[in-house]
């Protein structure tokens, strides 16, 4: 059965095609509709469409544009073009896009079903070819290594269905008893440097070279098959198969092969590796557990003692210390330093903290990875609150270190510290630029608020919460700008206003006290005396005597 999509902005034409098409006779079980090219493209991406009928003249995205996109994204999609007039440009694009047929409006039953039958014949011929052994359940022209990779990944991700994939088990040696399987994970510690210096930024060429080295020396007895890990671009997964032997032999040969691989990669390309190897199992579906052990072993390698390439077997890697300290508790201090424009002090706080890890007994690769991610998230939250998200992150699609333009290479604790320092540099620079432009307007806003609300109970926390500034830094900025601390300025505004109100003999001192925000007349009198060295009554008397 087939799925058809009609893409046309004219409802009458969509309805006519629905009515005129011999869908049941053609084996079409579902006919979907899209009201314009943009919607049509979304539905093509959402549904597995076998055949699309496309109107050439549509809003949003016209037929020519849609055909060009379909060529790239849906190479197996069959197309029938519909046009209201015989336009050569549309016809040329239709020919270039290898459409099945070209129909002119108004569409009649005979022409429509003739075009549909032609398309269905092509679909049936393709399905017949795909019914052969390996290509039965995969896309056309998929290579054997890619199929093996997909099978191994499905087992690792625990989505493999043994019954439905039984025909493919011989491809990975899972059809014979006595075979053992183990998984190794290799991490390239200086991947970005090697890709730049040795492979001219060609990622595919680098992957090809690495997998070739890992797969070397496979024979009829011991086989290694590798591919890039979906977990991280710097990691490669290797599946080791030992035929008709014992698990101990599989473990020994796999570890030996990984160590030899690490040595060869360093010798040929200057690649530094850290590797983890899982236990061997006789059941191929248990390589998921072997992979998890390999990953845990890799993550547990001690960064403090890492020198060059290293490979560890599961169970032989020292576990990370419990309750390892995190940067979370230091972030308020780092934030305060960044807000005050003191990036050097923020770096000093970071350095003091990393020294604790450096002096500990163990600090693993996994902890280093988690710390980097945590630091990016924590600084990102601060930057978001301060409207200081780095420009690269705002306009780019990449996140994390790549989005910040920072290399994720580190093969030692010192290089790990350098990565953290680079992250801090990026955010410190952006926060400094953002705050520099905002400080003047923030101070002006605070001063204006005090001028208009001097009679209220004004607390500094009102401003620190609103503008995400520390108390000490805000007080320093305000005094530097106006010569008064915030509390001092509130008092000055109140006292200036008090003098103005006392000049009106009709106002009682109690009324003036309340107008200024003092609910206690005596407290107002004491504050006035402290400020002007005389009481409100004495000040009023002086005004009266001076007026005589």
UniProtKB/TrEMBL annotation:
MF terms in GO? DNA-binding transcription factor activity; sequence-specific DNA binding
CDD domains per the UniProt record, alphabetical: REC_YesN-like (cd17536)
Q: Report which superkingdom the organism of origin falls in.
A: Bacteria
Q: Which PROSITE patterns match?
A: HTH_ARAC_FAMILY_1 (PS00041), HTH_ARAC_FAMILY_2 (PS01124), RESPONSE_REGULATORY (PS50110)
**Carries keyword Iron?**
no
Positions of modified residues (4-aspartylphosphate): 55
Locate the transmembrane regions by residue number: none
Instruction: Give all residue intervals belonging to the HTH araC/xylS-type domain.
Output: 444-542
Q: Does the keyword Methyltransferase apply?
A: no
This protein's UniProt keywords = DNA-binding, Phosphoprotein, Transcription, Transcription regulation
Which Gene Ontology biological process is one annotated for this entry?
A: phosphorelay signal transduction system
| Domain Response regulatory: residue ranges | 3-120
Protein name per Swiss-Prot or TrEMBL: Chemotaxis protein CheY
The organism encoding this protein is: Paenibacillus graminis
């Amino acid at each position: 059965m087939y799925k058809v999509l009609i893409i046309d902005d004219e409802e009458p034409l969509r309805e006519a095609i629905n009515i005129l098409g011999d869908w049941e006779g053609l084996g079409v079980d579902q006919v979907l509709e899209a009201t314009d090219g943009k919607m049509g493209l979304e539905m093509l991406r959402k549904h597995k469409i076998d055949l699309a009928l496309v109107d050439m003249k549509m809003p949003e995205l016209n037929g020519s544009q849609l055909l060009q996109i379909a060529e790239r994204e849906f190479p197996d999609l069959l197309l029938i073009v519909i046009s209201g007039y015989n336009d050569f440009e549309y016809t040329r694009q239709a020919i270039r896009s290898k459409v099945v047929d070209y129909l002119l409006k108004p569409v009649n039953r005979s022409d429509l079903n003739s075009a549909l039958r032609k398309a269905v014949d092509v679909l049936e011929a393709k399905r017949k070819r795909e019914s052969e052994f390996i290509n039965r359940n995969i896309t056309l022209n998929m290579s054997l290594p890619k199929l093996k990779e997909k099978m191994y990944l499905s087992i690792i991700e625990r989505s493999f269905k043994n019954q439905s994939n039984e025909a493919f088990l011989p491809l990975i040696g899972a059809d014979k008893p006595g075979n053992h399987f183990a998984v190794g994970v290799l991490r390239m510690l200086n991947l970005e440097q090697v890709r730049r210096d040795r492979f001219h930024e060609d990622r595919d060429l680098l992957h090809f070279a690495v997998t070739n080295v890992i797969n070397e020396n496979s024979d009829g007895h011991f086989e290694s098959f590798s591919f890039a890990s979906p977990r991280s671009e710097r990691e490669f997964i290797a599946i080791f198969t030992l035929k008709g032997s014992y698990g101990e032999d599989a473990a020994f040969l796999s570890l030996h092969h990984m160590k030899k691989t690490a040595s060869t990669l360093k010798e040929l390309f200057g690649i530094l590796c850290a590797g983890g190897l899982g236990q061997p199992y006789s059941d191929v579906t248990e390589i998921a557990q072997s992979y998890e052990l390999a990953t845990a072993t890799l993550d547990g390698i001690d960064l403090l003692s890492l020198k060059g390439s290293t490979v560890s077997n599961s169970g032989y890697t020292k576990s990370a210390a419990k309750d390892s300290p995190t940067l979370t508790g230091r972030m308020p201090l780092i934030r305060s330093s960044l807000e005050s424009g003191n990036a050097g002090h923020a770096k000093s706080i970071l350095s003091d903290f990393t020294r604790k890890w450096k002096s500990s007994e163990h600090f693993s690769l996994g902890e280093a990875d988690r710390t980097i991610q945590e630091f990016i998230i924590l600084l990102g939250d601060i930057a978001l609150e301060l409207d200081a998200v780095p420009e690269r992150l705002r306009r780019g699609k990449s996140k994390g270190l790549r989005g910040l333009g920072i290399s994720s290479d580190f093969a030692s604790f010192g290089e790990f510290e350098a990565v953290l320092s680079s992250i801090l540099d990026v955010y410190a620079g952006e926060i400094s630029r953002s705050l520099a432009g905002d400080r003047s307007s923030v101070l002006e806003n605070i001063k204006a608020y005090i001028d208009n609300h001097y009679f209220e109970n004004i607390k500094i926390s009102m401003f620190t919460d609103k503008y995400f500034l520390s108390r000490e830094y805000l007080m320093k900025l305000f005094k530097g700008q106006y010569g008064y601390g915030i509390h001092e300025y509130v008092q000055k505004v109140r006292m200036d206003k008090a003098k103005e109100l006392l000049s009106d003999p009709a106002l009682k001192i109690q009324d003036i006290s309340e107008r200024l925000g003092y609910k206690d007349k005596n407290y107002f009198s004491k504050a006035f005396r402290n400020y002007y060295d005389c009481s409100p009554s004495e000040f009023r008397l002086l005004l009266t005597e001076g007026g005589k």
